[in-house]
Each structure stands twice: as structure tokens, then as C-alpha cells.
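Question: does this match?
>
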Amino acid sequence: MKVYALRKISVQCPKCEQVFATMQAFRMPKISLQSKVEADLHRVLPDAFIRASLLSTCPECIYTWWQSAFRTSFMLPAMVPDAPPVSNAKKFGHAVLTGRKEGAHALDRAMVALNGYWCAREDWQDGAKWLELASRELAEALSDESWVGNRSRYNYIMGEVQRLLGNFDQAIKYFGMVNRRSALPKELVVHQTNQARQGNSRPIILPPHIIDGVFKLSPVIITPEKPENEAPFPYQVISHNTATA
């Protein structure tokens, strides 16, 4: 049985040093083949409040960021002010603003905006504005050549954001920039490219064998690395059988 557990703790704001009480998600089941994972690579949570509890908002200065940015306080939660009553998805909006004010990289802000989209959907709200925000932040991040990371994987995510927005030509463009360095199953990239070509902008749930390939839940077989200048995945139909776990 998958159990998500939250608790109330006291934390100190890294900006103004205010101590306050906030909810913390301290037990999150690991992703498994039975998890509900969508094609933008996020796990759907059973309640938007769980995702919102990954952030904290200071009641004094409204500094909002991931829980890890706040130091745990020894004071009892009952003895300090509570975090402000901000709606679940709106907390991610405050976090994007905090990220801009504090100079967080556009990639970090993009991930916050994507979480805002996922949180809104888990709250049965329209997520279009969050996708548009994530698209702008991701575009800024991908245009910055100074950071080192798995750009191929983020090109895939950008392609999926564009597909969900209905920008199918842009989605195909970004999917075409994905190669093996993304560490994503080739079948997934080809499938999502097909969906963009067919004009499908709906969220897509991943089958177990693709979840396994994305999150490496099964033992990994090491193969020789490919050259850095390897071409993107070609657009083709995968014809071999893919067994589900």
C-alpha cells in the first residue's frame, strides 16, 4: 500500500530568519511500475496538497521555495506563526517570483512552473497558464549555453510542453533534438513525436515498461558510450515487441 505522510514542523526562513510552522511531506513512496506517470515524466500525486507541501512560504516576507531551502527549527509548531494560507498551485507562483527575485536559474524556475502545472491539474484546475510559464522559462534556460546538464532530456520535456500547449510544429522540433544522451527510451520519443504529428494535445499515461525505462527500475546493462556528436533519434516506427512488467 502506498502511503503519503505529512507532518507539521517549524522552519526558519533563509531570507528574513522568521521561524514559522509549515506542513512537510516526509514520506513519499518510491516510483514503481504501478505508479501513474505521465509523458512529461512526472508522477501524478493523489492530492494537490502533497505537492504544495514540497514548498514553504514565509508569513513575514513571502519567500517561497523548496522545503530544503529552509532550516528546521527546534521550536514547537504550536509556538510560532503558521505559514500563510496560500492555495496549492498559487504557492508555485510565489516560488517563481521568489526565484526571479533571488536570481535562480531559468531551469530551476521552469521546474517550479511545471510543478505548478501538475499541482493545478491535481486540484482539477486548468493548467494552461502554467504550461505557458514553463515554456517561457525553459526557452530561456535552453538558450543559456553556460550551464552543464542533460540538455537532450530537457529538449524532450520542452517538446512535451509544446505538445500539451497544442504547438505541434514546435513539439516535433524539440523531439527531433532528443538523442540517446537523454537516457529516455527511444520508443517514448518516437511515440510522442507521433502524437504531435497526429495533433494530440492530451496528457498521456506511460505504460509500465516505459516507466521502467525512464526511471531505471530494473537492473541496468552497461553498453559502450556513443560519440558526443551522435545524431538525434530518427523518426520511425518501433516494430519489435515490448513486454510490459
